Amino acid sequence: MPPDASSPSPNENPPAVMARSLRRTFGEFVAVDGIDFEIERGECFGFLGPNGAGKTTTMRMIYRASPVDGGRLEVLGLDAASGDFDRQIKAQMGVVAQEDNLDTETTVRENLRVFCRFYGMSTAEANRRCDELLEFAGLVEKSDQRVQALSGGMKRRLMIARGLISRPRIVILDEPSTGLDPRARQNVWDGLARLREDNVTLVLTTHYMDEAERLCDRIAIMDRGRIVACDSPTGLIARCSAPQVIELSLRRGPLPEHAQPLLTRAQRVEHLRDRVLLYVDTPEDLVGDLTKTLPDHPAMVRRASLEDVFLELTGRGLED
Amino acid sequence: MRLPGDIDVKMALAVWWRNATVYRRTWLKNILPNFFEPLLYLVGMGLGLGFYVGEGISGQDYIAFIGPGLLASAAMNGAVFEVTYNLFIKLNFDRLYDAYLCTPAQIQDVAAGELMWAVTRASIYGAGFLIVLAGMGLVGYPILTSPFTLLMPAGVMLIGACFGLIGMWFSTFIRTIDLYSYFYTLFITPLFLFSGIFFPVERFPFGQEIAWCTPLYHGVRLMRGLASGELTPEVGVSVLWLAALSLLLMAIVPGRMRRLVYG
Ligand SMILES: Nc1ncnc2c1ncn2[C@@H]1O[C@H](COP(=O)(O)OP(=O)(O)OP(=O)(O)O)[C@@H](O)[C@H]1O
Ligand SMILES: [Mg+2]
């Protein structure tokens, strides 16, 4: 079937991904609870959310590894919910799954070589592509070793390289940088930035707020199967209940009783395991009083960040 | 190119090619046992035990009686190993099929590629056996006596396909790799012993009726017919039996595998 034969979208240039009331259930459990979003071509779109929020489930529906139980889902204008266009959709997509699924019986290079076959590359073309990607992943020296000989971060890099084999129009990255050292992460960011220049659409999840803030044009924050906010990183930060944050360290024990009246002066208080966050418009007076009253609990002031929005919107910490 | 069942041949070949890549590294180590196993059976059972079966069976020397049946079982073993332990690792431990399915490949392409590989392994195994069987003729033990012997490779592939599919089908039911020991001890071994390779199935009450319902019996009957050139209607029935079961499983297996990777 030609892709445009029964394409439901009348739009000449449909968005990369479009979801309406998208649902996915596992038995009684609703993992994705009627979400709406649109991902423009060439943008970097991030899903953030606590463990179990439904990010991976959403991505799996997009990359056609999972059925759609309700609502609409279109990828590049093709109806993804029906399952009829899976081959066309997947031909234009690269996937880096959350769980490594490398071939443990072949070498690093063969892991890439085998996948070139699925995209009908000639031998010369495939060899060239493997060279490029081994270089990109920093695995040239390891190319003839078995996958078992790789460290966790190297496996992750190989997963990313494999996801890019076909020069896809859309790349789905489910926690791509988990387990990477700072330099490797920087390399991946550079690689993703180059893809952006080529107008490739990126859809990613991450638990690193700095990564999300740095890479994403727009971010959807998910919680319990729903999207609780969707905006640019700066737009999200602006939604935070206050622009400044005072961090009180709990390193030397819990806060004493007489700290309570001080806490009430903040717009919002967030209790974490090792610190307390106080959200305020102007921190100066409160910080002065805190240092006087609580000498054992050093206070630090910073601007509100994506992490603060995350904590506020998802109602529980990253650390729980 | 698309085959019935929406199978994309290019994708299936990519799956096949991955297995060939792995096998290429080990084939030199594997190929020698391929010749020894038939030789051991033919010498040990055919010449050793056969010495005491003086008058032969069905008017044949004992070694000529068991040779074609052993070829059928070699095809079975070659196919089955690939789609049991090896397939289980790819499906459940490495989750390699999940990775295949992120390419344009669909599960039916993956199933077809694995089946093609099982048939390839059955053929490699069967070829070793055929060479040994032919070689026995040169040293005075004629086993392959008819021109229809030339059709035996096709028979090996049919048996390989049928058992490849049976193994794949079984693999979609089990959750732990240990359960293959049931498959081998309660299915493959009884088939090996009671499908008429070593003695006629009529030896036991209802032996014939029970064996008729099992696949290796038909493989043995087919191979024996091709080796001797006595192509009775029963041989045709066996071909149809194996083909029918293969087609049935081809229709079922991709759907079963899909349930394990799509969710
Ligand atoms: N195959 C499945 N069967 C049953 N429940 C599932 C299945 N897959 C996911 N779930 C449930 O769906 C919910 C969402 O899972 P999902 O993997 O999408 O979370 P996530 O946002 O990716 O989390 P994480 O940050 O930990 O990766 C979880 O509660 C999970 O237990
Ligand atoms: Mg996840």
Mind explaining what this structure looks like?
The complex is a heterodimer of chains A (320) and B (263). Chain A has 320 residues and is an alpha/beta fold. Chain A folds into 2 domains: 17-233, P-loop containing nucleotide triphosphate hydrolases (Rossmann fold, 3-Layer(aba) Sandwich), CATH 3.40.50; 241-303, Alpha-Beta Plaits, CATH 3.30.70.980. Chain A has helices at 55-62, 86-91, 108-117, 123-137, 152-163, 182-197, 209-215, 233-238, 260-263, 284-293, 306-314; strands at residues 17-26, 29-39, 44-48, 70-75, 78-79, 93-96, 170-174, 201-205, 218-223, 226-231, 244-249, 268-271, 275-280, 299-303. In chain A, strands 6-7-8-3-9-10 form a 6-stranded mixed sheet, with helices on both faces. Chain A has a 4-stranded antiparallel sheet with strand order 2-1-4-5, with helices on one face. In chain A, helix 3 packs across helix 4. The longest helix of chain A is centred in the middle third of the chain and has 16 residues, at 182-197. Chain A is globular. Chain B is mostly helical and 263 residues long. Chain B has one domain. Chain B is 73% helix and 2% strand. In chain B, strands 1-2 form a two-stranded antiparallel sheet. Chain B is globular and about 60 Å long. At the A-B interface, helix 2, strand 6 and helix 3 of A face helix 1 and helix 4 of B. Chain A: Keywords: ATP-binding, Cell membrane, Membrane, Nucleotide-binding, Translocase, Transport. Chain A: Pfam families: ABC_tran (PF00005). Chain A: Belongs to the ABC transporter superfamily.
